[in-house]
Amino acid sequence: MTTTRFAPSPTGHIHVGNLRTALFNFLIARKAGGTFILRLDDTDPERSKQEYADAIMEDLEWLGLTWDRVEKQSDRLDRYNAAADELRAKGRFYEAFETPTELDLKRKKQLNMGRPPVYDRSALDLTEDEKEALRAERGDGVWRFKLEHERIEWHDGILGDISIDAASVSDPVLIRADGQFLYTLASVCDDIDFGITHVVRGSDHVTNTATQIQIIQALGGDVPSFAHHSLLTGPQGEALSKRLGTLSLRDLRARGVEPMALLSLMARLGSSQPVELRSSIDEIIEGFDLSAFGSAPTKFDERDLFPLTAHIVAAKPYDAVADEIRALGVPDALAPRFWEVARENIMTTADLSGWWDLCRDGAEPLIADEDREMIATAMPLLPDPPYDDTTWKTWTDAVKEATGRKGKGLFMPLRKAVTGMERGPDMANLMPLLQKVRAKD
Ligand code: GLU
């Protein structure tokens, strides 16, 4: 059965880049009627925090990306120990004692000689006595997986045929000197034990995949299908890594982005299929095709989320936003009309407060020089609030009569004087909401 996982480390909030990984794995599982596992990669006790795990779940729930079960790596240390023993017994695991400084020096020498900076395996030549002596002097070493020096090949669900020379990769460290298991070993054990059939993750994991394939094989597991999606860049192709902090899912949610806007965009961005606003996750599942994604870096522009969000927001019935509107202090008698007027003129419901400010306090008038005289004539013709449905017509008729203006030359200056803007809601509908018109002062 198709089984996928999303495997964040609970060391921070998840962002749009993580969402891509989560979404693809979710969609593959759901499309196949399979299982989607949320796996918390929390083997680092210092950096992993329950509050981040909770926040990740909250973010996924907000989006409707439901998981079938949660697994925590910190619960599975016995299993990782057993796997380490198995690798030792099979001669695929060795202890190495180089300090970070020594490793750095080796790398620099290799680079100077124009060679790739691959670990030279000198620890393999240590005798038992030498290891004892090093252990006494430096404490426990790290444990490295001994790669088989052959080509590692797989058909990648996005990148196509991949072939990596294992000799060009350092034997990966799977256990740190302090005994902490590293993600690579834990991930491999989990993928085997949970029957993971498909793994989609960022292309920064391609080398990991090569080594993980050999570890899975060494442990007698089935190798899942791998696919590596391209990494997101900013709109200009610039690295997004530094800005990802402001592109966390909770940030986007706080800014009023609608879940379906985000999902609709991310399910298509970087693929040959067009971005289409979907109204349900089922539609997204149906329209998802992993093979349509390309390997080129994917440009992400957060501004694309807002027109999509605006569509969703404008279609909401009053009941869906009534609480938010009331919280702004809009009187109940005006609230439904306020929604009718504002809905077409906002990107997110966060923009409602600006419209309510305008209704309550009036706007700074915008008056062009050539309209000054006309506005001076028009304002005394407008009574004080409250207004009703007939106010706009009665007023503009009177101004027309008094100034001889008509059409755009009549309506636009009045709109700008009342709202301070060139565009906005239908004025006849807006007038009854206005508690103040500052141009009258
Ligand atoms: N915790 C890893 C990460 O966030 C998981 C990678 C994987 O999917 O195996 O990069």
UniProtKB/TrEMBL annotation:
Binding site for ATP: 242
MF terms in GO: ATP binding; glutamate-tRNA ligase activity; tRNA binding
Presence of keyword Thylakoid: no
Residue numbers covered by motif 'HIGH' region: 8-18
Bilayer-spanning residue ranges: none
GO cellular component, one term: cytoplasm
Localization (cell): Cytoplasm
Binding partners and assembly: Monomer.
Function: Catalyzes the attachment of glutamate to tRNA(Glu) in a two-step reaction: glutamate is first activated by ATP to form Glu-AMP and then transferred to the acceptor end of tRNA(Glu).
Family annotation (NCBIfam families): gltX_bact
UniProt protein name: Glutamate--tRNA ligase
Naturally occurring in which organism (per UniProt): Maritimibacter harenae
